[in-house]
Specification:
Order of helices and strands: HHHEEHHHEHHHEEHH
Shape: elongated
Oligomer: single chain
Structural class: mainly alpha
Largest sheet: 3 strands, antiparallel
Strand order of the largest sheet: 3-5-4
Number of helices: 11
Length: 275
């Protein structure tokens, strides 16, 4: 390896940090992907450059390019607190933004085989994600009632309020004077979440129906696959998600009984939990 090889390796990582770019649209990117796959020494060098930047290489392939995820200490890491502060004026909405990302991921890939199948394309809608979360909240409420849990939050500690109460108290749509969707409504929050995912190369917009329709990309599948073991996502799926193909939301009662754990406030994908 010579300095030119190091420059090529860094160039490949740079391509990987452009989320909407795919090798099929850039000849140089495609050539570097081919070299990474065929030249083990170059692959090790490129992976080392990525590791030095705090990046985790999820996959290097013609379909996904060099798909990377930022480690917690990476300068490229996006944290839920930072995202929520940019997306909303009310810091109290931080949990709702995280839940929107978590629900979008769970609804896009509801079964383990969906994540395992490289050819699978998930489809979601803004209204479908909202309906999905509201059904999940109703299921959590039923569990709380069945177990006799006290779901009334302390008046001086709104942050301890049960997850389902936070979401269900918020208006689904609302409207401004010119009939636009309120940014603070749950569909407004979900709209911001999916817009971020589009900008990040994780979703592609396919239409305007149901508040906006979207399809998943290979990069998003890899990201969700990497994060699928999170406790919050497992809890949401344990509520009984069934696979859907048109972006609508459906839940069935969970097969196993037991208390529902609190959904983590910082569990929104693809973010790190730190503030």
């Amino acid at each position: 390896m010579v300095p030119g090889d190091v420059a090529d390796a860094a160039r490949l990582v740079g391509f990987g940090l452009q989320p909407k770019l795919i090798p099929a649209r850039d000849a140089e990117y495609a050539e570097l992907i081919r070299r990474h796959r065929e030249d083990p020494a170059f692959a090790r060098l490129a992976d080392a450059v990525a590791a030095g930047l705090g990046l985790i290489v999820l996959e290097v392939s013609p379909r996904a390019g060099m798909a990377v995820a930022a480690g917690e200490d990476s300068v490229f890491a996006v944290r839920m607190g930072d995202y929520a502060r940019r997306a909303a004026s009310d810091s109290g909405d931080r949990f709702l933004h995280g839940l929107a990302h978590l629900a979008a991921a769970a609804l896009a890939f509801p079964r383990p085989e969906d994540l395992a199948d490289d050819g699978y394309i998930g489809r979601i809608t803004v209204h479908g994600v909202d309906a999905f979360v509201r059904q999940a909240c109703r299921r959590l409420e039923e569990r709380a009632d069945e177990s006799g849990e006290n779901t009334d939050p302390a008046s001086d500690a709104p942050g301890l309020e049960a997850a389902w109460r936070v979401y269900t108290r918020r208006s689904a749509t609302g409207a401004t004077k010119d009939a636009r969707r309120l940014a603070s409504s749950t569909t407004g929050i979900i709209g911001k979440a999916v817009a971020f995912l589009v900008d990040s190369g994780f979703l592609q917009r396919t239409g305007d129906e149901s508040g906006g329709t979207y399809r998943t990309t290979a990069r998003y599948q890899l990201q969700v696959r990497d994060m699928a073991g999170s406790a919050a996502m497992a809890e949401l799926l344990d509520l009984g998600v069934v696979p859907v193909g048109d972006g609508t939301a459906t839940l069935v009662p969970a097969a196993a009984d037991g208390e529902a754990a609190d959904l983590a406030a910082d569990a929104g994908l693809p973010f790190h939990a730190g503030s």
